[in-house]
């Protein structure tokens, strides 16, 4: 197993990692959502967090974050004009946002006095279990290193430096910073063990109106007498296992999330009736999803979910491993 802080210390991060061309010294980067297809809670840690074993997949559903350096020391964040009102709700624009926390951490590490203006085009709903905020933070770390390149003779931040900052900011950030298509993540999520996917995967996901509080879901979760491990799901994802993928997907937090969010529990029942297959939850919720056998099947199911359940549904597909050559 590789500790994230040392994962890519010798590999430079380049403009091929989801960056888009910028203007007026600005750079825009995709912030991909993750999907948990296995999550076990191993116990409570002394630092108050929970020890986890989870399998995360990087998807092509993403926010976009634009950063522009300024001579002013201020760090500011705003939504893009195209961000829907529902995706703005509950997302702070002050220093409590992970984007600005990440930027402040990079600035302190570099010792620069410059600031930055960030514009967030938010597509990943908050409190959805898709790690939108964590992905925004990962992008902010990369963007700040890029826009605040130090003067000649000064040291830049290595990938190990960024992973160290990510581990101090929150769970999931290290995986999303790595750019890996799939990984087993342990600890709080900061220890990752990447593995290759045998093929692209497709999911149809839907979120209830009400989101889930991660803290509330963990408080309501009963610790298991015997913990499961991720070996079965990883084996299937690597193309080495015989069970169907949907037969090995697992999330220990699901029962607690259903209790804390009855609307989500009802949505899972209705989605099961409509799709005729098992329904799962990502992270601590509230996004739930079903496994599709192909892009075509996902394309057929998505409008049915939207029309019948009257909720926006997304097709989530795993990122193409061929494009994951950096981060």
Description of the molecule:
The longest helix has 16 residues, at 132-147. The chain folds into 2 domains: 2-193, Ribosomal Protein S5, domain 2; 197-321, Alpha-Beta Plaits. The strands form 2 sheets. Strands 1, 2, 3, 4, 5, 6, 7, 8 and 10 form a 9-stranded mixed β-sheet that branches. The protein has 327 residues and is an alpha+beta fold. It contains 10 helices and 13 strands. Residues 1-21 and 323-327 have low confidence and may be disordered.
Question: What topology emerges from the helices and strands here?
Answer:
Layout: E1 2-3, E2 19-20, E3 27-44, E4 50-70, E5 75-79, H1 85-88, H2 98-110, E6 115-121, H3 132-147, H4 159-169, H5 173-178, E7 182-187, E8 191-194, E9 202-206, H6 214-219, H7 231-237, E10 250-251, H8 254-260, H9 262-275, E11 280-281, E12 288-292, H10 295-309, E13 313-317
Parallel strand pairs: 3-10, 5-6
Antiparallel strand pairs: 1-8, 2-3, 3-4, 4-6, 4-7, 7-8, 9-12, 9-13, 11-12
Helix pairs in contact: 2-3, 2-4, 3-4, 8-9, 9-10
